[in-house]
Amino acid sequence: MTTSEFDAKAAESGAGATAAFLSKQAPVADTPPERVSQLATEVITAVHDVVRRHKLTYEEYDALKAWLINVGQDGEWPLFLDVWVEHVVEEVNNAHHKGNKGTIEGPYYVPGAPDLGSRGTLPMRADEAGTPLVFSGRVSDLDGNALPGAKVEIWHADAHGFYSQYAPGLPEWNLRGVVTADDNGDFEITTVRPAPYQIPTDGACGKLIAAAGWHAWRPAHLHLKVSAPGKDLLTAQLYFPGDPHIGDDIASAVKPELMLDPKPAEDGVGETVVYDFALDPE
Ligand code: MBD
Ligand code: FE
Asked: Tell me, what's the ipTM?
């Protein structure tokens, strides 16, 4: 079955993402008023420029107003921001990294997934669809020294493009888990290949995509957070070669360094893939 036969409903995934974001949000950053004023003024001025350059009509202004209201009503501010803005925030914040490239977190991370030891299988249904995938790797510092005890958190959509806790009917921790690097820095995660992800088409973000003639797809991806004491947290996504949306990810989160190279498994069932992580110092 394809994702489109199972369209995620904006109201469900959006409301879930909004509630989850608000519940984990740290206290507001202590930004000085001068910086708040500068940032706000520049954003507002950028909007004025667009209005002038394109002579926005009152009809268009009212449509914009209604659409912005709808984004909030559909709970889609996390989706909107993570799809169209986060990649630039990631770019400016991680430009100094010498270790692995990262990319955006997106709206569907949940902390506290089950611990699987150094080698384990992600929680999944007995009949979980999708090509079996064994993902192994090593976590090191920038000099290649193993980082035993490093945590690799992984979460991804199922073979229909759905994330547990953001789509109805999935077990709570489906396809979410944490492995811990062993004494050699090694870990191994058994899972299934995710499907490409389609942004809900029935919410405000979907309406913008349709009105603009864009497509709503992200390439299939694994989400990861790799962490170790004294090291910068690495948030990344990994992608599969040959995916139809590698070159036009709606969320602009693909980088050449984030491509996997899966091989057929030796036992003939599914695929294996190796991908290592080098973490920058804090
Ligand atoms: C996703 O799964 C995702 O990773 C991002 C960035 C946006 C929407 C859905
Ligand atoms: Fe995702």
From this structure: 0.97
Residues in the ligand 1 pocket, defined by CB under 6 Å: 79, 82-83, 104, 106-108, 197, 199, 218, 251, 253
The rounded distance, in Å, linking the Cα atoms of 50 and 92 is: 24
The β-bridge relationship of strands 132-141 and 271-274 is parallel
DSSP SS3 for 210: helix
Q: Give the model confidence (pLDDT) of 117-172 as tens digits.
A: 999 999 999 999 999 999 999 999 999 999 999 999 999 999 999 999 999 999 99
pTM of the model: 0.93
> Which residue CA neighbors atom 6 of ligand 1 most closely?
106
Residues 189/120, Cβ–Cβ less than 8 Å = yes
Do the Cβ atoms of 258 and 238 come closer than 8 Å? yes
- Which ligand 1 atom minimizes the distance to the CA of 86? 6
Amino acid letter, 27:
P
